[in-house]
Design a protein that fits this description.
Udp-n-acetylmuramoylalanyl-d-glutamate--2,6- Diaminopimelate Ligase, Chain: A, domain 1, UDP-N-acetylmuramoyl-L-alanine:D-glutamate ligase, seven-stranded parallel β-sheet, six-stranded mixed β-sheet, 16 helices, 22 strands, 22% strand, globular
């Protein structure tokens, strides 16, 4: 079926489902394929559960008019998303980066929604399936769509930009994330910069952290840029005040105090602020949006449990974000301080070096105790307490309870699920 005709079907049934466990009545079901499943085999079930149509790419499953046969269901989903993006009048703001994407996206949405009707990527649905699904959630009255793009290898951001065709873009930072897939730090810079390449090639506008030397150099000759800086006069001035524990900054003589822990969240707030300024959101509304935003989903959350003050930052970790979290924790005025650090994934050949560097950094800081959890940290040369499994840590804490009224940092990759530490306190 031609994409234009498929789009007409979609407009009549503007909900997309790809999982029969989450069927919405009158949706359009796309039979996607994975390593261990074939969505075509679930198409009939999707229709039984209330889907209006099922888009399939194997002819033997297209047994009635309720099935729409295409060459490739995933490609059709992506093409439909691009067609719908062009059909809409909404402005598309894309963002990527090694750290802080989701928090920044939520902050941008909070700020821009003060003046505009916005939609944004739900959770971290930021890949070749999530980006099309977000684009297809744009409605007739949507004015701004904030699209998060994730990647772990070259050409992925380029592909996502070709689907979303963003009007504006922002890169949070370039860090030591997904080193295995990108092929090292230079590979990360090259891969994330595919967003810059697309925007500049298409004469689109770019938001930037003018204090990031990589961004500053890459965008030196690009005319359509609007950035923030702590001290560069030609950019929008946002002054960092403190992060003890919450990030505080000054904008146009107004002090903004966020609910985000860690100085590393300053640039996340600043990006949202500068976009609000560009799109003429009043500074008072920008301040209200930033101050009202409360982190969740294990991202820089400040919690209290049994007398402990806890920084729960267990959604993800890489050497750059781990280093920033430790530096921030070391600078906090609190005693006693205890850190639970979990393995960092997707580092490939650099895993041993990077885990050793973080173990050595943690050992050099003024913490009362540091617990290293995971196979990679367990192999480091360190006098810190090391546990190859979470179960081993659990057994140790059961016999040696954490000191009362401690300030605690919990940081690790998603696969480590270190939020489980809360159960041990």
């Amino acid at each position: 079926m031609e994409i234009e005709k498929l789009h007409q079907r979609f407009l009549a049934h503007p909900r997309i489902c790809t999982d029969t466990r989450k069927i919405i009545k009158d949706c359009v079901f796309f039979a996607l394929k994975g390593d261990n499943f074939n969505g075509n085999t679930y198409a009939a079930e999707a229709l039984r559960k209330g889907a209006a149509f099922a888009v399939v790419d194997e002819s033997q499953y297209a047994v009635s008019d309720s099935y729409i046969l295409v060459e490739d269901a995933l490609e059709s989903l992506q093409q439909l998303a691009t067609f719908h993006r062009n059909f809409s009048t909404a402005k598309i703001i894309a963002l990527t980066g090694s750290n802080g994407k989701t928090t920044t996206k939520e902050l941008i949405n909070a700020v821009l929604s003060k003046k505009y009707r916005t939609i944004a990527t739900i959770g971290n649905l930021n890949n070749h399936i999530g980006v099309p699904l977000t684009l297809l959630s744009i409605t007739e009255d949507t004015e701004m769509a904030i699209i998060e793009m994730g990647a772990n290898h070259q050409k992925e951001i380029e592909s996502l930009c070709k689907i979303a065709l963003p009007d504006f873009g922002y890169i949070t930072n370039f860090g030591k994330a997904h080193l295995e897939g990108f092929g090292g730090e230079e590979g990360v810079i090259k891969g994330k910069s595919e967003m810059y390449d697309f925007l500049m090639a298409n004469d689109r506008s770019i938001f930037m952290n003018a204090d990031d030397p990589i961004q500053f150099e890459k965008l030196r000759d690009h005319i359509k840029k609007f950035g923030f800086s702590k001290d560069k006069k030609e950019f929008y001035r946002i002054s960092f005040v403190s992060a003890n524990p919450f990030v505080k900054m000054v904008v146009e003589e107004q002090t903004i105090t966020s609910q985000l822990v860690g100085s590393y969240n300053f640039t996340n707030c600043a990006a949202a602020i500068v976009m609000g300024k560009y799109f003429t959101v009043p500074v008072a509304d920008i301040k209200n949006a930033i101050e009202s935003y409360a982190p969740k989903n294990n991202r820089s959350q400040l919690l209290e449990k049994n007398g402990h003050h806890i920084i729960l930052d267990a959604y993800n970790a890489n050497p750059t974000s781990m280093d920033a979290a430790l530096e921030n924790f070391d600078g906090m005025e609190a005693v006693p301080k205890i850190a639970f650090l979990g393995d960092m994934f997707e580092l490939g050949k650099t895993a041993a070096i990077e885990h050793q560097a973080i173990a050595s950094l943690a050992a050099s800081m003024n913490f009362n105790e540091v617990f290293l959890i995971g196979e990679n940290f367990h192999k480091t040369d360190s006098d810190l307490k090391k546990f190859d499994t979470f179960e081993a840590l659990s057994e140790y804490i059961a016999k040696n309870p954490v000191e009362r009224s401690s300030t605690i940092l919990i940081k690790g990759s998603r696969g480590m699920a270190l939020e489980r530490v809360l159960e041990l306190l």
